[in-house]
Design brief:
single chain; 214 residues; alpha+beta; 8-stranded antiparallel sheet; two-stranded antiparallel ribbon; 34% strand; globular
Length: 214
C-alpha cells in the first residue's frame, strides 16, 4: 500500500508545539508547516521572521552518561548531558543537547560551561557555549555570545543592533560586564540562569540558524 500525506489545517499557535512533539514521538520528524494569515491565506514569502520562530515548549526527552565531544586539540567530557525536544514552524521538532563541564583557567579561573549541541542523542554540532559569569556563585548566571552579525561567526559589538528576537525575548548585556579579565571580549551576550534551559535552548536554536544554514 502506498504511503499517505496528511494535512491538518488551521492549527492554533498554542496547539502547534504539542502537536509537533506528539508527531515526533510517533516517528514523524519533518512535517511541512505553512503559516497562514488571520484570513486563512498563506503568508507572503519573506514576511515571516524565521529567527523569531522559537519554541515555548521545550521538553526533556533523555539524559545520557559518558558523553564527550572532540574539539580541535582536545576531547571534552560532560558530567551531565541532557537532550531536549522543541517544536518550531520552520523545522518541526528539533533536538538540542546541553552538556555541562568545568573548563580550567578560563578567563582567569575554573568556570562552569554549558555547551548546546544540535543532537539526536549524542553531541553533534556545537551551536552555543554558556560560561559562568564572575558572580556565578551569587547569581547562578551564565552568558553566551551572540554570533551571526555577518551571517556566520562574527559577534555583535557595542552599539550594533541585535536581531529583533534578542531585543524582545532575551536579556542581553556585554560580555565585559559579566566577565572581567584582560582581553575579554566587549561583545553582546545572552544571560541565562543555570536552570533556565529554555533561554539556552532558544539561543542555541537561533544561533544554529544564523550560523550554519545557507
Amino acid at each position: 500500500m502506498c504511503p499517505f500525506s496528511v494535512t491538518v489545517q488551521h492549527v492554533p499557535d498554542r496547539e502547534l508545539g504539542p502537536l509537533l512533539i506528539r508527531l515526533a514521538h510517533a516517528g514523524f520528524h519533518d512535517p511541512l508547516i505553512e503559516p497562514v494569515g488571520a484570513d486563512g491565506a498563506s503568508d507572503e514569502a519573506g514576511t515571516a521572521d524565521p529567527v523569531a520562530d522559537i519554541s515555548d515548549d521545550w521538553r526533556l526527552v533523555g539524559e545520557r552518561e559518558g558523553q564527550s565531544y572532540q574539539w580541535p586539540g582536545r576531547r571534552e567530557h560532560y558530567s551531565r548531558y541532557r537532550v531536549f525536544i522543541g517544536a518550531t514552524r520552520a523545522e518541526g521538532a528539533v533536538h538540542i543537547g546541553l552538556g555541562e563541564t568545568i573548563r580550567e583557567n578560563k578567563w582567569g579561573r575554573d568556570r562552569k560551561y554549558v555547551v548546546a549541541f544540535l543532537s539526536s542523542g549524542s553531541p553533534q554540532q556545537p551551536v552555543a557555549e554558556f560560561v559562568a559569569a564572575d558572580d556565578y556563585r551569587e547569581t547562578r548566571e551564565l552568558v553566551a555570545v551572540i554570533r551571526g552579525s555577518d551571517g556566520g561567526r562574527r559577534m555583535y559589538s557595542a552599539g550594533e543592533a541585535l536581531p529583533r528576537v534578542y531585543e524582545a525575548r532575551f536579556r542581553t548585556q556585554m560580555y565585559s560586564e559579566r566577565v572581567v579579565y584582560p582581553g575579554v571580549w566587549n561583545k553582546a551576550v545572552v544571560v541565562a540562569g543555570e536552570d533556565d534551559e529554555a533561554t539556552m535552548l532558544n539561543h542555541a536554536l537561533i544561533q544554529g540558524r544564523r550560523r550554519y544554514r545557507r
